[in-house]
User: Fold this.
Amino acid sequence: MLPTPSLRDALYGFGICIAALLVAAIFFWLLADLAWQGVGRLDWTFLTTPPRNAGRDGGLAPILVSTSLIILVAMSVAAPLGVATAIFLSEFTPAGGRLARWMSLSLDVLAGTPSIVFGLFGGAFFCVFLGLGFSILSGGLTLACMALPILIRTVESGLRSSPIEWRLGAAALDLSRATLLWHVLLPAAAPSLAAGLSLGIGRAVAETAALIFTSGYVDRMPSSLFDSGRALSVHIYDLTMNVSGGDANAYASALVLIAFLIAANSLAFWFSNRIFGRRMARA
Amino acid sequence: MIAYIADTDATAGSGRAAYTLGPLAAGPTCCEPRPQISVENLTLAYDGRAALKEVSLDIFRGCVTALIGPSGCGKTSFLSSLNRLSDLIPGCEVEGRILFDGQNIHDQLTNVRALRRRVGMIFQRPNPFPLSIRRNLEMPLKEHGVQRRADLDAAVWRSLVDVGLWEEVRDRLDAPALALSGGQQQRLCIARAIALQPDVLLMDEPCSALDPVSSTIVEDLIASLRGGYTIVIATHNLAQARRVANYAGFFWVKDRAGVLIEFDHCQRIFDSPRHELTAAYVSGRRG
Ligand SMILES: Nc1ncnc2c1ncn2[C@@H]1O[C@H](COP(=O)(O)OP(=O)(O)OP(=O)(O)O)[C@@H](O)[C@H]1O
Ligand SMILES: [Mg+2]
Assistant:
């Protein structure tokens, strides 16, 4: 016999709660483990002093600077390029057209490409062919290539999902395409820009493989974008794999990495809201 | 100046009765019947399926023309072909001639944007932009060259007063337009269109989301615009059509495509329709 509707509702509710709790539990376990092992090392000096003794002692200062610079380069290249491409795809190519289909197919393939492939490409193209060498610039540009597909796809779908009534209304008022885009469509797509940026940043901050080949692992303070610089993830990788006795600092660094990720995401939301969202008045 | 009536016998082929529209028996004399828009044999299809078939009628300058007919008979489609908004609807194809002030709007030489600047449109579903109330009105004005703050403020005030929205929103002009009620949104859209002072206003059921009070305000607005503006209004509200319109066209669905059954002075359509379908529809026996 079928259970009564209210019992069925209760069962569904219970199942959904369990699933949600499970996911949350895994995340908290991970975080607790990291905190447990890493928080002992974490203090102001850890953040403001350079690493010593191959990273076993000392702090993270130059690594934080390098990481920030790499991400800054990546995002300041990827954001405008990505938004422009998304606009091109959603506004200037018909939805079912051949060009749109090919572009989205190749973007999807690129989005799923293993990072090591991007690393090899970045090393060959930016470091060698363009002569940028192992540098923060090479690393940032490589990460921009990696972040672009996701960014483009999210912004494009944000733009495409705007109701056709706005477009018709704008056309009936004889608004130019640029006005419609700038004042209506992009502000409305600001949340998807933020989502795209934070996905891109997430992929970038977590990146190790692509950076080893491009920005290198020199752990000195960089003096320009042309210097090699070690990213946080590379540092953690190095401490756990190559440096015996580096585990404690690796955990502390991982904790910093997570804090970094949260900060970078908030920044992405703030940024996209600031650029486009302030014109937007949401209901 | 041709009134139109479709064959009363549905099988009788293409012969159609036409007679000359006389002067309006009663009603406003603002309507010297000079056509502003002449539609000739308009056929409109979505993805190859005709939604409108061979519609011909004249829309007279300074007059209010009402389009009536059951749901799905192509009123919205007809309106959107007049300012070539149908160009933007995927899969929509238009055949036939539409003369705007004597010029074919499908001509290579016609500037679509200039056409749309002269034709304002109010949509069946309110479509304010996701911006503040003020910016909804100011953005199109700025786009069309109104830059001075005083001019903008005056235009915003004027158009909101005209649609009876000013008192309701005067102290929250910077609030999101999407936070307004449906009826308020529709009046905002009307304000947005008339702020640009077009020559022609296409109104697609402007009052269907409005309460009787705001409906009356919009009707009064239409009455006050008559003479200065050419207005085409699609409506399901027959009493309203009768009150505001000088001319009326009755559409019907035949073989799954919309056709024009009868076009005449509004009064004749309602009081002495020639076609039996029209008579049945306006008397509420069918529809
Ligand atoms: N974008 C579209 N794509 C395909 N078919 C459409 C589209 N818009 C309208 N149609 C079809 O065209 C016909 C006429 O539609 P239209 O919206 O013009 O009718 P209407 O008279 O405005 O109806 P209503 O009174 O309900 O607003 C309908 O059969 C409808 O299904
Ligand atoms: Mg309609």
In short: Residues 9-19, 22-30 of chain B have pLDDT under 50 and may be disordered. The first strand of chain B starts at residue 2 and ends at 5. The pocket of magnesium ion (ligand 2) is lined by residues B 75-76, 124, 204 (CB under 6 Å).
